[in-house]
Amino acid sequence: MIDPRSHGALGRSIHNHQQELNTIPEIPKEKYILKCTSACAGCSDSLALRYVLKAAGPDTVLVVPACCTSVIQGTYPNTAFNVPVYNIAFASAAACASGMSNAFRAAGKKTNVIAYAGDGGTLDIGIQAMSGAFERGTDFLYICYDNEAYGNTGMQRSGGTPLGARTTTTPAGKTEGKKDIDAIIAAHDPPYQATACAAYPQDIFKKVKKALTFRGPTFIHILAPCPPGWRYSTEKSVEMGKLAVKSGMWVLYEREYGKLTIGAQSKAAMKKPIALEEYLAPQGRFKGIDTKTVEILRQRIAKNYAKLQAEEATP
Questions:
Q1: Domain ranges of the chain
Q2: Whole-angstrom Cα distance, residue 111 to residue 307?
Q3: Element holding 5 (H helix, E strand)
Q4: Which of 101, 194, 283, 297 is the most exposed place for a label (fewest CB within 10 A)?
Q5: Which DSSP string do the residues of 53-81 spell out, in sequence order?
Q6: Alpha-carbon distance 127 to 119, whole Å?
Q7: What is the pTM (predicted TM-score) of this model?
Q8: Are 222 and 55 a contacting pair, CB within 8 Å?
Q9: Could you tell me the pLDDT band of residue 65, with boundaries at 50, 70 and 90?
Q10: Please, what sign has the CA dihedral across residues 216, 217, 223, 227?
């Protein structure tokens, strides 16, 4: 057999691609989200959840507070989800998941308990219950899918909305920065936490599989671009997620027992990021953003990169 590495740049490219394929776990064919969802066209929340559930498998219960996901299930008594779902009040997802996890463990069951909430129900309304669950050491996975606004009720500003973004309650652009929920979670010292993006479903799959191997509270923060809220064409959701990573506005990494590892996609972006404007320009929510605000965002990206690189280099 000819070694492709001996055939120049093309051969090396083929070899690297083969290595990459060998590291991708097989994605199960089973579907736990059916085709009859009420999701908007181009919804990356439903794309992310599709791979979350493929990784978790059928012995899983979702705890979903008020958010887009509580809508896309469909109209009662029908549902598009093929796992048990417990819909709960906006502030209570992690509290409900705590009781549910304790009940399953007391009964000797290993059922995966996953709280699946938006940024409004995580960074803002649900943060108290979430912090309490992490402090108590609850055995569950908390996933925040982040479309950077209150998408379920009309795209109002949330703690996850980035600086300069227009929402229905910040029509001239948000004047505050995005809340660093990942640093808040890290302060609770969970055994595992990660960031992900709906544009990289295989990365989501691997991180969810890994998170569910730990006992105790784990956390995954998924960027979920939203066509109607971010005001871009519906077919560009995957492209928009990749632009977020390539520009540095979203960094992929995981932190295991306090040790940070930056993802390959973000390491490549750190070496040669695309211009921030390539990410901002296609989104109507950033229409009219001034150069001063763009420069502030650029500086914050550089500062975040430097912080994460320094942490990764720490033994």
A1: 31-313
A2: 37
A3: none
A4: 283
A5: HHHH-SSEEEEE-SSHHHHHT-STT--SB
A6: 10
A7: 0.91
A8: no
A9: very high
A10: positive
Closest listed residue to residue 68, CA positions, set 142, 153, 167, 157 = 153
> Nearest-CA neighbor of 190 among 234, 242, 263, 137?
137
Measured CA to CA in angstroms, residue 39 lies from 151, 155, 165, 218, 224 at distances of 11, 15, 23, 27, 13
In the block, residue with structure tokens 């055994």: 191
Residue type, 250: W
pLDDT on residue 24 = 54
Cβ neighbours of residue 220 closer than 8 Å, sequence gap 6 or more: 141, 142, 143, 144, 193, 194, 195, 196, 204, 207, 208, 211
Domain 31-313 maps to which CATH number in 3.40.50.1360, 3.40.50.970, 3.20.20.70, 1.20.272.10? 3.40.50.970
- The DSSP string of 182-246 is HHHHHTT--SEEEEEETT-HHHHHHHHHHHTTSSSEEEEEEE---HHHHT--GGGHHHHHHHHHH
Structure tokens at 290: 């001034």
pLDDT digits 0-9 by tens, 96-153? 999 999 999 999 999 999 999 999 999 999 999 999 999 999 999 999 999 999 999 9
Q: Report which of residues 217 and 6 the model is more confident about.
A: 217
* 161 and 148 Cβ atoms separated by less than 8 Å: yes
pLDDT tens for each residue of 41-54: 999 999 999 999 99
Q: What sign for the dihedral angle of Cα 140, 96, 252, 235?
A: positive
Taken in order 37, 42, 45, 47, is the CA torsion positive or negative? Answer: positive
Q: What is the mean pLDDT of residues 178-206?
A: 98
